[in-house]
Amino acid sequence: MDHGRHVPIGCRLAGWRTRRGVTTAELASTSGLSEQVIVEVESGGDWVDRQRVLYSLAAGLRLDPVDLTGQPYPPVGAEHAVVRSAAWHLRQYLTEPGAGARRAAPGGLLAELRTGTAAVRRAEAGGDEHVLAVVLPALLELADRSVVGTRGVREEVRTARTSGYVAAVGLLRRVGYRDLAWSLLQQARMADPGGDRVLAEEVRLLTSMGLADTAAVRSEQQRDTPRTVELLCAAGLAHAAAGQRRPAQDCLAEASACVSNEAEAAELLVAQAGCAMEFGDLEEILVLQDATGGMPAGRRADLLLLGAAAWARNARADRAVERLAAAEAVAPLYVRLSPLARELLHALKGRARDTASTRVLARTARRFGVR
Question: Are 187 and 97 in contact, with CB atoms under 8 Å apart?
Answer without folding.
Answer: yes
